[in-house]
């Protein structure tokens, strides 16, 4: 196998599509946490590897030439597993991900928190309509908010029984500004994760123009990546350089 792409993001799908077009032997691996994941090009594997040791075994067994970690910015465990396994097996590793929003001018006006529990505590003190755009998995952290006028946006419905007043809106982005204006109408606070990008996404644009308070969850500690890019084209160039240099022994 030339390339293993650790996926689950739009960037991963775009990269895999380009590699398939170029007839690169690529496999995209996804966690399979959503019931209806987006269709991906080429060969796809679903599920975990079994920790660092399991990933090391996979790299050896499949003779993987290089790995691209294009998982979500908050897939912290996978980041560290990939980093440790690739170091141990001497497999080149590239991190492909969007840059943090932290350094954007708009970010100075947001309330930055360390995790979902802190976000819930902050929101408790803010009256009015709440919009949660953090996905379904952290839902339990917000149940302490109780009965609220609250919109929870996610791809799959949460397993938890939700308090009165909560509405689940199942949809998958990316979203337009007009779409977000409708979704955030009447909101007093928006809770988001630092998914990142070179500019704010549509919901943050709407929050700014509407005076909606933003509570932003920071990313966890990241490995010290040797190679990191934010664009699919740069990732392609990195892969071509590895392929031109020959496979690892």
UniProtKB/TrEMBL annotation:
Q: What class of enzyme is it?
A: oxidoreductase
* A biological-process GO annotation: cobalamin biosynthetic process
Which top-level group of life is the source organism from? Answer: Bacteria
Looking at the keywords, is Oxidoreductase present?
A: yes
Q: Does the keyword Nucleotide-binding apply?
A: no
List the protein's name: Precorrin-6A reductase
Species for this entry: Cutibacterium granulosum
Question: So, what pathway does this thing act in?
Answer: Cofactor biosynthesis; adenosylcobalamin biosynthesis
InterPro entries in alphabetical order: Precorrin-6x_reduct
One GO molecular function term? precorrin-6A reductase activity
E.C. no: 1.3.1.54
Which UniProt keywords are listed?
A: Cobalamin biosynthesis, Oxidoreductase
């Amino acid at each position: 196998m030339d390339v293993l792409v650790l996926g689950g993001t739009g960037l991963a799908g775009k990269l895999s599509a380009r590699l398939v077009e170029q007839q690169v032997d690529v496999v995209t691996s996804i966690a399979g946490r959503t019931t209806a994941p987006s269709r991906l090009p080429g060969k796809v594997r679903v599920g975990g590897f079994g920790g660092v040791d399991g990933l090391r075994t996979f790299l050896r067994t499949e003779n993987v030439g290089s790995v691209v970690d294009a998982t979500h910015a908050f897939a912290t465990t996978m980041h560290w597993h990939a980093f440790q396994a690739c170091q141990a097996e001497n497999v080149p590793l590239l991190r492909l991900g969007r840059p943090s929003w932290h350094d954007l001018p708009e970010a100075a006006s947001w309330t930055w928190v360390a995790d979902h529990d802190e976000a819930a505590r902050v929101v408790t003190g803010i009256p009015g309509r709440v919009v949660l755009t953090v996905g379904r998995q952290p839902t339990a952290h917000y149940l302490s908010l109780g009965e609220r006028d609250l919109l929870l946006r996610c791809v799959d419905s949460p397993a938890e029984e939700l308090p009165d007043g909560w509405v689940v809106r199942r949809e998958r982005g990316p979203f337009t500004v007009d779409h977000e204006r409708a979704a955030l109408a009447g909101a007093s606070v928006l809770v988001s994760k630092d998914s990142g990008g070179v500019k704010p996404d549509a919901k943050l644009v709407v929050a700014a123009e509407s005076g909606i308070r933003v509570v932003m969850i920071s990313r966890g500690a990241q490995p010290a990546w040797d190679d990191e890019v934010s664009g699919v084209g740069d990732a392609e160039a990195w892969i071509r350089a590895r392929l031109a240099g020959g496979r690892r022994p």
